[in-house]
Amino acid sequence: VQGTGGSSAVSKCSAAARGYIQDRFLRLLAGRRRRRAPLIHRGYYIRARAVDHCVQDFLLKTQSLPRTQIVSLGAGFDSLYFRLKDMGLLHHTVVYEVDFPDVASQKATLIKGVKELSALVGDTGGEGLGAITFSGDDYKLLGVDLSELSELERTLEEAGLNNEIPTLFIAEVVLTYMENTRSDALIQWAAERFPRACFLLYEQVQPEDPFGRVMQQHFRQLSTALRSLALYPDCQAQQRRFLGKGWTECSVMDMNEFFTCCIPEDEQRRVQTLEPFDEYEEWHLKCSHYFVLAASKGMEASWTPLSPSVTVPCHAGPVGVAGSVPAAVCAGLSGVPGLRRFGHRSVLIKPNVIVTTGGFGEEDGQHCRVRNFHLLSRHAGHWEAVCVTQNVPDQRWGERLYHTVSRLSDTLALVVGGRTSPSSAGLGMLWLKFPETCGASGPGDVAVELVNLQPAAEAGALRWRHSTSEVTFKGEQYLFVYGGRSALEPVLGDWHFLHAPELSCTAISVEGPVPESRHSHSACGWEGGVLIAGGLGAAEQPLGSVFHLREHEHGFQWQTIETHPPLVPRYSHTAHVHEGKLLLVGGVWFHASSVPGVTVINLMTGLCLNYVINVEHLEWPLMLHNHSSVFLPDEKELLVIGGGGNCFSFGTHLNPEPVLLSLSSILSSR
Q: What broad class of enzyme is this (predicted)?
């Protein structure tokens, strides 16, 4: 547990070095420097922002009072005091920091040895007196185990804490490491002993969904189990906890809601453009698994730092569920390491033959961008998979992620776009050519030929997280490339018609309301046109719109499909059409109380029904984002291949085996 504080300080220091947070003291306190990934920077930015937002609101609301106090529980190597002092915000406030004796002693030694820190705190020689490891006029550093409440109370009183003046308690990922009886006692003690008090809590939530299970496993492996989650698994339970322990007001937000509601739009845009970034799913999942809570009692002016500055749709409400869909491991494909990947594409090139390309996953025992293809074929109801190494080494393949693959015939498919890194340009187009015998006599004799393509419509290819769909206009076949993002544009809203098979760019009139720019949406061919659903918009907010691009006399026309109840906004899902029904599979949304399963939209009536996925027969977390899926109409089954991602600092999760979802019961209903 003590080690988590040092790791946190290093991550905050890295975020500050990249401009996410303004804090010149972190580098003095972190002890060591290590550059973290952009996803980690965003995660620690939102954490620091939430804490600062609430602390500064407390100081603002109490600035007319003669004295106030801040008690930081489990402060570690945090720089809060030094930042507040440097900003001139502690004229009448004393800060008490508490942590394990060893941690407090290390921090005290560090402060004494760094002139820039010791000059700010103004050492008055009170160090070394029992548990008080450092003492200044407005800063006290105490070495106490928080689980020993009587010792904590005695030491705080000895250090000068006055329970009659307004006091803010801060617990930033601290209480969850304690036994619940002890953390509950501390929360109740603070409410009972301090007539005018506020409590700021930041920690984890939602332990039982796939991301939550990976998160819990990570902390268990560090021997720092998250103990609060069993009794307080969601934001509502935490709110009830505080109201039941003596606090009279309590508000709580998960970090998706905090980012959207409490951070100004210009600051959101600043953060979103600091570094090349393409891990939206993991960013939003991380934010849905952490919360900030503000509780108070006895304050003359109501302390409500989590009041939204903007009005947005509620993220926390439950999603209506019409039923469930059973999931089972696809036995024939079990144990194929090359199918453990995300950001890839799978396409049915002929009946019972699927090609899976690209993505990030396992190859030769390593995690990397996957270069090899996999061909999946079914014989007598049994699936097999074989890894196919391209027959000519060709750097133009580029080990790409977030591309599209469109089948043009049994022997020909087109790869459009994709990327290597988020800072690189899109990768253009390539042909995939398959022999006539592909899949006929088992997968063992398959060869795949990559042919470079020089398309006229280069602008249509230099993108990723887009869609490519087959449409028909005046009896001619076209590929419709829509949306996505590029290295220069975080979201695109343009489209291109490529005439098959020569792929010449064709100008075709399109009328109607133009959809909002988006990426990570789904696209399905339907009635000669295409259905676009969901996606991530320009503000990195999930979209809930469904559009139909349909042919009319002089070109195409965008039409909005109204759904009822409204489609829950989502992205990074897959989609299929079957007998007038649009199936949306998985994805990411902001409703932390559940994860997306299968949504069925009746395209005639607009009826929208959500089904959860029954995973009781799976022994591992099923992450349904960045996956691929193939619909098998005869069996009314979905074959889900891959999925997962880099789960913040908790490690990379790859769904270990392909999964079959049986849809027969829901497709036969309304």
A: transferase
- 278, 361: one domain: no
DSSP 175: G
Separation of alpha carbons 526 and 242, rounded Å: 52
126 and 162, same domain (yes or no): yes
The amino acid present at 301, given as its one-letter code, is A
Does residue 395 surpass a pLDDT of 70? Answer: no
- Domain match, 92 and 213 both: yes
The CA-based dihedral angle spanning residues 273, 274, 276, 282, taken in that order and rounded to the nearest 10 degrees: -90
Span 282-289, mean pLDDT? 97
pTM (global) more than 0.85: yes
Separation CA 670–CA 581 (nearest Å): 10
Q: Would you say 241 and 230 are in contact if contact means Cβ atoms under 8 Å apart?
A: no
CATH code assigned at 533: 2.120.10.80
Mean pLDDT of 390-419: 80
Q: Could you report the per-residue pLDDT of 64-101, keeping only the tens digit for each? A: 999 999 999 999 999 999 999 999 999 999 999 999 99
Residue with tokens 């390491």, as numbered in its chain: 337
**Secondary structure element (H or E) that encloses residue 151, with its range:** helix 149-159
Please report where in the chains the tokens 């973290």 appear, as a residue.
Answer: 36
- Residue 207 shares a structural domain with residue 327: no
Token couple for 258: 């905090």
459 Cα distance to chain centroid: 29
pLDDT at position 444: 43
Q: What are the distances in angstroms from CA 85 to CA 60, 98, 510, 598?
A: 14, 18, 59, 52
Whole-angstrom Cα distance, residue 190 to residue 185?
9
The rounded mean pLDDT for the chain is 90
CA contacts within 13 A on the Cβ side of 663: 30
Total tally of structural domains belonging to the chain: 2
What DSSP state is assigned to residue 607? B
Task: For residue 483, give both structure tokens.
Answer: 């949306």
Same domain assignment for residues 335 and 231: no
Q: Is the pLDDT of residue 387 over 90?
A: no
